[in-house]
Amino acid sequence: MTTKTGGCLCGAVRYSFEGEPLMQAVCHCKNCQRQAGSGWSMLIALPLNAVTVTGELRTYVDHSETGNEVHRQFCPTCGSPVFTRVPAQPDMIFIKAGSLDDTSTFAPQIQFWTKSKQNWVVIPDVPGMPGNPG
């Protein structure tokens, strides 16, 4: 099995994991747009126990449009977003796919919050939903 690695811009936070993501997605919610400074956020979901992390993270506690807590974790030195944690899913971790050392295998399977999608964003052949699943 291949080990995948990633980290923040300055290298103070590093992570590794083995195995395939449970999900690869694009989120278009306004908070992800603001946090990423882009039109969307690219995420891969993994079991929490599959990921090894070194370095210090800072957490910003956010709330989704549905009111759920969203913990956005970033490097306190360079500010790079690295992980998202959702207390309602304590055994999961969402890695910001742009922080992977090799992004060539990222292939989104679904899009969330398409009702907030920027008009200029086109991601063909990836099914979407207007909000969160369920």
Description:
There is one protein chain. Strand 7 (69-74) and strand 8 (81-85) form a beta hairpin. 5% of the residues lie in helices and 38% in strands. The mean pLDDT is 91. The protein has one domain (3-116): Metal Binding Protein, Guanine Nucleotide Exchange Factor, Chain A (Beta Complex). It has one helix at residues 30-36, and strands at residues 3-7, 14-18, 23-27, 41-47, 51-54, 58-63, 69-74, 81-85, 92-96, 110-112. It contains one helix and ten strands, in the order E-E-E-H-E-E-E-E-E-E-E. The chain starts with a strand and ends in a 22-residue tail after the last strand. It is mostly beta strands and 134 residues long. A seven-stranded mixed sheet has the order 6-7-8-9-4-3-10. Strands 1-2-5 form a three-stranded antiparallel sheet, with no helix packed on it. InterPro entries: CENP-V/GFA (IPR006913), Mss4-like_sf (IPR011057). This is GFA family protein. Belongs to the Gfa family. Residues 4-114 form the CENP-V/GFA domain. Keywords: Lyase, Metal-binding, Zinc.
